[in-house]
Design a protein that fits this description.
This protein is of the alpha+beta class.
Length: 200
């Protein structure tokens, strides 16, 4: 019923060969498992980073609370004209946003006079946080409010140009994480001599 192996030397060789093949298979399996584990760890880290960045781009944005402009008389096309020479935009953190550094936030102005893009920390802007520390320009809480002043007088370190009655302007804030907020400004058709500021 059972075959008897009489050659002991042959029997030992078969056992050693099987053992070598088994060890080789274990080594190959261990190396493959190590590669898979390393790849899985890398993919997990990359997925977490991508998820955090995506969440930041959606949630870490500004919310425009109010928008107004300073009204003054300037010479436009050889005529004294009532214009808006400075924008005052009050911003806050959007719900769910983390800390937002306004000095690293950029703004883009698009309107009939063209386009301008610049950092809020530039010479054409002022930032006043009046619910947080006056020396800090980082919004850290949803109750923080900051007034961003934008000088439109191109002759005085400003940008874009004056806004006249009936003009429209699109503002887009881009935070350091890449989240954007857009606000549309509309200047009233008539700016009277009694007005020193106007809601936009």
């Amino acid at each position: 019923m059972f075959e008897t192996i009489l050659d002991e030397e042959e029997r030992g060789q078969v056992g050693i060969g099987t053992l070598i093949v088994f060890i080789a298979m274990v080594l190959v399996a261990a190396i493959a498992a190590g590669v898979l584990i390393n790849t899985a760890g890398f993919l997990q880290t990359q997925a977490e980073a991508t998820g955090e960045e995506s969440t930041s781009q959606v949630s870490d944005r500004l919310q425009v609370v109010s928008q107004s402009g300073n009204v003054t008389t300037e010479m436009v096309d050889s005529t004294n004209t009532r214009v808006v020479d400075e924008l005052n935009i009050t911003v806050a953190q959007a719900p769910g946003a983390s800390n937002i550094d306004l000095s690293e936030t950029s703004i883009e102005l698009i309107g009939t006079q063209g386009q301008d893009t610049f950092q809020l920390a530039g010479p054409e802007t002022t930032i006043d946080i009046y619910t947080g520390s006056s020396t800090d320009v980082v919004l850290t809480d949803t109750s923080d409010r900051a007034d961003v002043g934008i000088n439109l007088d191109t002759d005085d370190s400003g940008v874009y140009g004056y806004l006249e009655g009936g003009d429209r302007l699109s503002l887009t804030f881009t935070t350091p994480s890449g989240a954007t907020t857009t606000a549309e400004l509309r200047v009233p058709t008539t700016l009277t001599s009694e007005q020193t500021s106007v809601r936009l």
